[in-house]
Task: inverse folding
């Protein structure tokens, strides 16, 4: 066996370049939708609307930008940490080009409205399979490289990479279970509350194991390299690695406080999020304390500036996160822009800034040259930092302002702001601030691109020559260093055990890839199973409601339009058990109402009002006019127009496969219902069209998609009968003395209280009853 | 920071690792959060439904209902009579108030000139639910939810509802362009005082 190895640096070079390109695309879309959110005229339906571009933004920055950063960094650092070349050149090539192909296909699908309707897991099922295949290729390459390593012990960065690969595989497969009805269409295998639990188990741990643990691994390699300082504490690495892997996976239900999710699950989510504080801060402490004695370098080194602010933002976000997971704090932040601010503090502060720091450090290394301009990098750092701060502060203020307006009551029991739109218009100035913040952050990217292109241009002609380094011989999992050829005797085994123990138990583990991987998988499964199994096997978690029936065929098609247009990205379907929500929307949402919801559509942000009780609230003509031009029914509305729904025909032919797919996942449609579905669609659409025409609305809509969407909206939340819990006194019955003045009614009766009847509730139950 | 021993334990690819003790305050956070979680979980598990979402919600609603009731005990509400509503139709201040509220709340469904859009035309002499000003007042307060007219008594202050009705009375027969076809029964407008 040779004493030297050649590193494959072409692969990391490609991944880093791809990361830069997707960063520009993803963040540009981010800036665009930040404007689309409150300037409805910028939305160009059908393809370029907020609802379709928002998943494009999140997928592009998470899976394209951050994903390529992870792959580049893992492939670059692991060769050096394991003193070996990557396992297989063909696999790395397939991995790289496959991932870029996936990104392009994903973008096309999302713009075309092919989405599964679950946040951060929107991609159609065929692309989900492609992701799984590429992830397996990545894993084979990763574990294969560990298997041919020439350093026995796995460094802490490798632990974090390893946990990420295992966890993302489990999460992706667990959450993406779906029943296809066409090449790009499918329904989630889970319904309602169960789907919500699975989705946020996935969603929160995508943050954990895609945005956090790989980046901690990257921090453990690139920060000590850039600072040229020893890592602060090996002990702390062990402690926070294992606690992070074990605890993080429990935290998902904190996205579902005060929802129809059982309270025990939400309580576990909150408590484990609080426990997560130390494991997260362990990473921050190890990063920041590594810089002890190197703080002076911060003054002139923009790379360290980026990295230090990144680690600081990691600490800030992982303090804010546990705080927001406390139920009463979450009651404020949930559904508001506070959450958006929190996410971006982590994404811009931690992920993007650490990426920029790594790129400014690694690109000159990989092209065997020096960084073109430290000054430009420093300017990038400062405008980026100002951008993040502005972003976060504007979203804090917007979120808390809107929440305070939602919950404000007059002393006579009326909402101070009964029109939701009033609470949106109030925070539009903050959306402008956020747009400026986003533009500032984005404007750093041209500087980065220019700086790195200039850097690459100074690369020597031989930059692509693979570095060849001396390396110790290969090691296998079970050998002790220097003893690979010793006789396999009892004495030798005893010597190995003694040798291993001298360095602690964990040191033994670091030499054993398979044992290490199994323990990581075990740590991940405890929380996952504890929360998921009772939900699937204990029926008391989702109490059935006899009156809740499956959607009618036209409503199924309407729901698919709702999902296609990304309505759930601005509208929730979850009324929380708070007086200010039930007064505004109606009875709070029950778990049993969602049993046929594949996927659940609770949403996570209210740019518009909740829709769970919208059924029957307005005449159908209202919905028709509203979709045609939201400003006509809601002056000041920021919602885009959906005029294509008036020209696109209802896709009647798709209903058979759709209902059969729904039946497979548990919606009890009979053969007869499926056979008569086209007739049922026609009849229901005609009835709504007739109602609209009777109200002197537009004619000839019976075959158009707007009828399907209207049917779905009119059905929402009407399967249970409900009444206001605390009816308010509105007005007394007649037979009271006439007040002398209209404008001052209280004063009018102040002198004659005895003659006025006690106010009685006259409010009829709003139109929520079953039709 | 000087109290860490900074002893190099390992070195790999030029990266050295110290094995410093974990900061005490960090460990305090760890044990503190674990202790809090244990206590909270015990409290939650033993509270048997007390302090849960639904009971908190009911308590909140009942308390609010009591507060609203006591407010109305102190400030009793009386619906305005037709005399007051009709008088309002001749008062510029009342009409200005009514028109502002109409534009904000009613125009989206009844049209900017009350010509009818989603809801019926309010300027003609046809009324679906009664055209006497007192009846119109009740329609605004209680709504006709089955037909899509929300109960505005839950959202608009009573004096503004009265001004609104006065305003609607004042635009009877204004004959706006693009008016919706008549709906409901013919009702002769009540005479304004002094006419």
Result:
């Amino acid at each position: 066996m040779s004493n030297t190895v050649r590193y494959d640096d072409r692969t990391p070079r490609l991944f880093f370049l791809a990361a830069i390109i997707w960063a520009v695309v993803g963040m540009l879309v981010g800036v665009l939708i930040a404007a689309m959110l409150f300037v409805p005229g910028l939305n160009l339906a059908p393809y370029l609307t907020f609802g379709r571009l928002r998943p494009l933004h999140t997928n592009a920055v998470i899976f394209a930008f951050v994903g390529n950063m992870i792959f580049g960094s893992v492939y670059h650092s692991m060769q050096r940490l394991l003193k070996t070349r990557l396992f297989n050149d063909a696999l790395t090539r397939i991995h790289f080009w496959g991932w870029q192909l996936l990104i392009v296909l994903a973008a096309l699908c999302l713009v075309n409205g092919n989405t599964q309707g679950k946040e951060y897991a929107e991609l159609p099922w065929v692309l989900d399979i492609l992701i799984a295949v590429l992830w397996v290729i990545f894993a084979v390459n990763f574990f294969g490289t560990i298997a041919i390593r020439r350093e026995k012990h796995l460094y802490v960065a490798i632990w974090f990479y390893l946990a990420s690969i295992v966890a993302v595989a489990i999460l992706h497969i667990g959450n993406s279970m779906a029943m296809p009805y066409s090449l790009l269409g499918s329904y989630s295998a889970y319904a309602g509350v169960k789907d919500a639990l699975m989705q946020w188990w996935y969603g929160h741990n995508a943050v954990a194991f895609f945005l956090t643990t790989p980046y901690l691994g990257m921090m453990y390699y690139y920060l000590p390299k850039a600072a040229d300082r020893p890592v602060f504490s090996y002990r702390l690495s062990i402690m926070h690695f294992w606690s992070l892997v074990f605890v993080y996976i429990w935290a998902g239900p904190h996205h579902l406080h005060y929802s129809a999710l059982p309270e025990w699950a939400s309580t576990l989510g909150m408590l484990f999020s609080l426990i997560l504080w130390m494991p997260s801060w362990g990473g921050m402490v190890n990063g920041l304390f590594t810089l002890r004695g190197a703080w002076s370098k911060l003054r002139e080194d923009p790379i360290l500036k980026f990295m230090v602010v990144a680690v600081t933002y990691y600490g800030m976000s992982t303090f804010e996160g546990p705080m927001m997971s406390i139920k009463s704090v979450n009651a404020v932040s949930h559904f508001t822009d506070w959450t958006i601010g929190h996410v971006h503090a982590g994404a811009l502060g931690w992920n993007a800034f650490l990426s920029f720091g790594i790129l400014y450090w690694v690109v000159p290394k990989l092209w065997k040259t020096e960084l073109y301009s430290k000054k430009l990098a420093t300017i990038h750092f400062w405008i980026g930092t100002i951008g993040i701060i502005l972003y976060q502060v504007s979203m804090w203020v917007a979120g808390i302002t809107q929440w305070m307006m939602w919950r404000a009551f007059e002393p006579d029991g009326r909402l101070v702001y009964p029109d939701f739109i009033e609470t949106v218009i109030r925070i539009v100035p903050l959306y402008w601030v956020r747009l400026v913040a986003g533009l500032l952050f984005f404007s750093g990217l041209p500087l980065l691109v220019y700086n790195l292109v200039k850097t690459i241009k100074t690369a020597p002609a031989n930059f692509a020559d693979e570095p060849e380094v001396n390396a110790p011989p290969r090691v296998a999992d079970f050998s002790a260093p220097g003893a690979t050829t010793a006789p396999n005797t009892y004495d030798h085994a005893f010597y190995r055990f003694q040798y291993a123990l001298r360095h602690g138990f964990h040191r033994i583990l670091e030499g054993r890839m398979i044992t290490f991987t199994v323990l990581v998988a075990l740590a991940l499964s405890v929380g996952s199973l504890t929360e998921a199994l009772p939900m699937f096997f204990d029926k008391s978690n989702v109490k059935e409601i006899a009156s809740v029936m499956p959607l009618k065929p036209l409503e199924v098609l309407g729901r698919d339009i709702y999902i296609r247009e990304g309505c759930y990205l601005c509208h929730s379907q979850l009324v929380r058990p708070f007086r200010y929500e039930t007064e505004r929307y109606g009875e709070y949402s029950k778990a049993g109402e969602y049993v046929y919801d594949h996927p659940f559509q609770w949403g996570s942000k209210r740019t518009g009002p909740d829709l769970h009780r919208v059924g029957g609230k307005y005449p159908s003509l209202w919905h028709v006019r509203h979709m045609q031009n939201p400003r006509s029914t809601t002056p000041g509305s920021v919602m885009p127009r959906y005029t294509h729904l008036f020209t696109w025909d209802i896709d009647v032919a798709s209903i058979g496969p759709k209902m059969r797919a729904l039946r497979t996942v548990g919606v009890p449609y009979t053969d007869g219902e499926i056979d008569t579905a086209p007739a049922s669609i026609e009849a229901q659409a005609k009835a709504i069209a007739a109602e609209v025409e009777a109200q002197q609305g537009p004619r000839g809509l019976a075959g158009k998609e707007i009828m399907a969407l209207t049917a779905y909206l009119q059905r929402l939340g009407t399967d249970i009968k409900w009444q206001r819990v605390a009816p308010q006194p509105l007005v007394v019955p007649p037979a009271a003395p006439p007040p002398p003045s209209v404008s001052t009614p209280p004063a009018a009766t102040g002198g004659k209280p005895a003659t006025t009847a006690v106010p009685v509730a006259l409010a009829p139950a709003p139109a929520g009853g079953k039709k | 920071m000087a109290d860490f021993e900074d002893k190099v334990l390992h070195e790999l690819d030029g990266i050295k690792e110290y094995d410093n003790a974990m900061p005490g305050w960090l460990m305090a956070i760890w044990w503190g959060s674990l202790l809090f979680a244990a206590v909270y979980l015990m409290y939650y598990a033993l509270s048997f439904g007390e302090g849960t979402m639904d009971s908190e919600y009911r308590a909140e609603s009942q308390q609010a209902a009591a507060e609203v009731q006591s407010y109305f005990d102190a400030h009793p509400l009386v619906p305005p009579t037709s005399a007051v509503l009709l008088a309002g139709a001749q008062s510029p201040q009342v009409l200005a108030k009514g028109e502002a509220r109409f534009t904000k709340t009613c125009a989206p469904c009844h049209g900017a000139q009350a010509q009818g859009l989603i809801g019926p035309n309010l300027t003609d002499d046809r009324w679906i639910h009664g055209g006497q000003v007192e009846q119109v007042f009740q329609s605004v307060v209680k709504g006709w939810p089955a037909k899509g007219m929300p109960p505005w008594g839950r959202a608009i202050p009573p004096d503004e509802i009265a001004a609104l009705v006065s305003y609607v009375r004042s635009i009877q027969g204004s004959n706006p362009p693009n008016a919706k076809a008549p709906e409901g029964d013919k009702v002769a407008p009540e005479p304004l005082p002094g006419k």
Q: What stands out?
A: Chain B touches chain A through 92 residues (CB under 8 Å).
